[in-house]
Design brief:
- It is a single chain.
- About 55% of the residues lie in helices and about 15% in strands.
- The protein is of the alpha+beta class.
- A four-stranded mixed beta sheet has the order 1-2-3-4, sandwiched between helices.
- About 20% of the residues are buried.
Length: about 160
């Protein structure tokens, strides 16, 4: 916890960027403290290619018995990573590279707000979660799909 606070504070003060720090760790592999720092930074710096990410999300959709999502489609004025039109669920996969700065975070929030205002269910997962914590992603997808279906029946 103390290490995480120190990294967050250094990032906030523009002393270090988490992705640059992570990239430099290979040069210090045998130094004390590198292993816990790498463990802390891996989920922040992890990035899948679009094709890898799409393959993993398709596998997760199959495992949750959801229909296949549309990928890289436009919805509510934004290109979205994954969309289940039958359920109204939008999934964005966030990596640190495109969601680090205040303006990038603001655009992500505006995107989510536009989707909510249009009646869809926006969800955000990190690339790391999709790759290394698929059970959590599946749980959230299943429960959101169940709520979306129940709302559709209630309103329907």
């Amino acid at each position: 916890m103390q290490l995480e606070r120190a990294v967050n504070e250094a990032d906030k003060l523009d002393r270090v960027r988490a992705d640059a720090l992570h990239a430099s760790l290979d040069d210090y592999r045998d130094q004390p403290g590198v292993a816990p720092l790498r463990k802390l930074l891996d989920p922040l710096a992890f990035r899948l290619s679009d094709s890898e990410l799409e393959q993993l999300m398709r596998s997760l959709a199959r495992a949750t018995e959801l229909p296949m999502p549309e990928t890289k489609t436009w919805l509510n004025g934004y290109e979205v990573d994954f969309f289940w039109p039958e359920l109204g669920i939008v999934v964005e996969a966030d990596g640190l590279r495109y969601h680090r700065t205040a303006s990038q975070q603001r655009r992500g929030l505006e995107r989510d707000q536009a989707h909510l205002a249009a009646g869809t269910w926006p969800l955000r997962f990190s690339h790391w979660q999709i790759k290394y914590d698929p059970a959590h992603v599946q749980l959230i997808l299943r429960s959101t799909a169940a709520r979306a279906k129940a709302d559709a029946e209630r309103l329907g």
